[in-house]
Amino acid sequence: MIYTGYADFWFRDIRLPERVGKFAALGIRHIDVWAWRSKGVLMDEVAAACRQHGSVINSTFDEAGGSLTDANDLPLCLDAWAESLDSAQRWGVQHLFMFSEQIDLVPSPSPAKRGRAEVGVIQGRVKPPSRDYTLQQKYANLLEGAARVMELVEKTNVVVWFEALNTYHLHGGITVSTHELAADVVRRINHPQLRLAFDCYHQQRTAGNLIQGLRDYWGLYDSVHVGDVPTRQEPGTGEINFANVARELQALGFDADGTGKIGLEFTPSRPGYEQETLDAVRAMFDFNARAADNRPTRA
Does the model's pTM come out above 0.85? Predict the structure, then answer.
């Protein structure tokens, strides 16, 4: 199993590039970085730190890439994606996220002003559309725009993860807010470089039905994100039964070829105990390693 570390959530008391080394010390060498555009020169530093530690930037996204559901935004979207792909190749990024709309992130409140239920929750608002569209028009625009983006993507070796985002703390009407719709987009576009990102946190916030979703969309995803609800901290801190999620993934054959990814997109509940947090997650999801250890040996 490959564990990918979300640098914006872990080790938040040190600079972003230094977090790469912290992850490497835990044995995590696939690094995910939110919102590359606002990071500026830090992305160059993160890429350099990855080279130093034998790591890679697993994923990022452009927080100012426009809304694919808005036909008037399509030129902006295509220009932004061209820039993202160019940057991704320069930094060695393996995956870029695609969403139905641009999400304008809202600054998080200070720790003193937020409750426990808001620890790892980042608020955001959907970029307002340029005009009123029906839902059917938005979806048609999305499919056309995503297909156009993939024409750019196929000139590279970057893989795109399409992700549904929740409506609980992302306000303003996100069009693709369930894995059902995200999977439909992936199936309709039908491109080998377009995959589904299965995010347990977002799905539980919006629709639940995690086990059935894992079954229904099997074959579309190779990455599962495991933030718990409501605090977006590690598995076991909230309402999701991640032990059952892990058992279902094992039954489906997830990571049978060693390429399955568990995205650690959560804020650890105990700063300073990141090793223990990772060990607890691995105890749930290292099922293929356990199965191999339990195989009888020949005399």
Answer: yes
Give 147's contacts (C-beta < 8 A, 6+ positions apart).
Answer: 189, 191
Q: Please report, for residues 17, 36, 38, 65, 105, the alpha-carbon distance to residue 41 in angstroms, rounded to integers and kept in the order given.
A: 11, 10, 9, 18, 20
Strands (E) across 133-266 are located at 159-162, 170-171, 194-199, 221-225, 261-264
Instruction: Assess contact for 199 and 163: CB atoms under 8 A.
Output: yes
Burial-class residue 43 by CB neighbours within 10 Å (0-12, 13-18, 19+). Answer: buried
> 2-209: which CATH topology?
TIM Barrel (3.20.20)
**10-residue mean pLDDT series, the chain (299 residues):** 97 97 98 96 98 98 97 98 98 98 77 47 88 97 98 98 94 94 98 98 95 98 97 97 97 94 98 97 88 46
